[in-house]
Give the backbone structure.
Amino acid sequence: MIPNFKAHPWHGISAGDNAPEVVNVFVEIVPSDTIKYEIDKETGYLKVDRPQKFSNIIPALYGFVPRTYCNEEVMRLAVESGAEDVTMGDHDPLDICVLSSHNIHSGGILMEAIPIGGFKMIDDGEADDKIVAVMVSDHAFGHFRDIFELPEAEVRRLMHYFLTYKNLPDEPAKCRIHEVYGAEHAREVILASKKDYETKYGG
């Protein structure tokens, strides 16, 4: 009898049958976490990355899109947008945060989400896009289809987190958001990261 093995969250699960319009998301961190967890790329288990040192707690569900990778194609989109200092992708799965009105208490779960935009974040010369999405059928956020439909305060809250979560109070900023983009470009980034994954790991 062949034993059943748990699928690796990055390599063993698809980005979704309807990607990039609707994507699978593996959630690593939820807003109540005071520890930053991330996937262990070898085993597929969640591991402790670091404790959150200050008050910069993630304001939305946060994880990655399976079978994506940020390298040449993702870098190309950043360069085409005018980010001339970009030299590579960040060599990680594509990051995604998911807005939901529901209290989800722990990571390590899968969900479906609709990408509505994102941030072209540049981190020390690396393209490190952050896709913004809404949970499918969420009562408060599920009807949004573009980031520019969101209240400005919601977008700025997400931006503030990503611009500060790596910094000590007396340190200069380590990254910047080159642009905020809508749903159409978010889908292009997802397709680019899927292509980078296929180049790196095969179809």
